[in-house]
Design a protein that fits this description.
Strand content: 5-15%
Helix content: 40-55%
Distance between the termini: 18 Å
Structural class: mainly alpha
Order of helices and strands: EHHEE
Radius of gyration: 18 Å
């Protein structure tokens, strides 16, 4: 079954955004030394919520578009190299991306 590479890129972009937002929230937590800095606390909360939302969207994209079409197992690596075939760990179906069709 050919899977679309664009969904892998979208999932990875949301995952990277979640990691960067979580790092920014941690850095902001280290910078907050005064408990009366409500603006900074709101910024840290917003960054944390953004990281949570971004990771949730990445998970939804992966579960909807990057799962095995036969058994619906989440066994496709979004970072899979071009032209390689990955086999589902549950049912053994061959899974690859549509890279050869886009050339």
């Amino acid at each position: 079954m050919k899977l679309q590479r664009k969904w892998a890129w979208i999932a990875m972009a949301f995952f990277i955004a979640a990691v960067l937002l979580a790092i920014a929230a941690c850095v902001m937590a280290e910078l907050i030394t005064d408990s009366r800095c409500t603006k900074e606390i709101w910024i840290q909360t917003g960054l944390s919520i953004g990281a949570l939302v971004s990771s949730t969207v990445a998970e939804i994209v992966m579960r909807k578009h990057l799962c095995c079409p036969h058994c619906k197992a989440l066994s496709v690596n979004p970072w899979q190299k071009r032209g390689t075939i990955h086999y589902c760990s549950q049912c053994g179906a061959a899974l690859s991306f549509d890279d050869s069709e886009t050339k």
